[in-house]
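call fold(seq) -> tokens
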Amino acid sequence: MEIRYAQHPEDVKTYTTDQLREQFLVEKVFEEDKVCLTYTHVDRMIFGGVMPKNKELTIPLGKELGVRYFLERREMGVINIGGNGSITIDGEEYEMNYRDGLYVGKGAKEIVFRSIDPNNPAKFYLASAPAHYTYPTVKISIERINPLRLGETNQLNKRAIYQYIHPNVCQSCQLQLGLTMLEPGSAWNTMPCHTHERRMEVYFYFDMNLETRVFHFMGKPNETRHLVVSNEQAVISPSWSIHSGVGTSNYTFIWAMCGENISYDDMDQVKMEELR
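ret:
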């Protein structure tokens, strides 16, 4: 598990491109037959990828959490972006097909990830946040989600937002998780942009061609920076930072949030004329 520490926005103003990438960009999220996790001290979110190919995988436990098992004091959300697979939670197996999701409540002890076909392995993207209460584990198929359809063609931001872990779908302590798909011909997400001082967020970009790049904008609204992001890479967004991107082609991203509340619309909007 890689550890990333928190940064003060005044310090970030002085970062070079390499320093920004080192602190906020996670370049390798999936690796065959490995669990690749990042622990950020920003609201203590853990996120990453599990890619079982030739063997079943479980989440290894080191000294980082100081607990007996991974979800002893945490909840977790998962979305499969690869081939068909399954997740077994304390002996109960959940089929996880392409873009199926799963909410796993605090206290689950044994978690096993597997792929059905090693030639088309599952890719389980997960996000986990501290939890104070045990809510039921819930399987969430993308077909049961009624997406929010936002944006305009002339603004290049037509998109569908699928809310997986959200009060309209299932209960959670503080974790929210969803997936946003941009339509062909659209490139912008979340513009005009916003911040939310009460929650942090992680963006995971995928469904991109080899040559496609997303320019992810971050920083205080009056002094922005950017990261150039490739397929299946993730960006940590502190609560004080904007989080908005534009791609050289359409793409999809998973957003994961945790913090003081679970109100999806609790945002501090930034006017275009305020951006610098």
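The chain has two helices and 23 strands.
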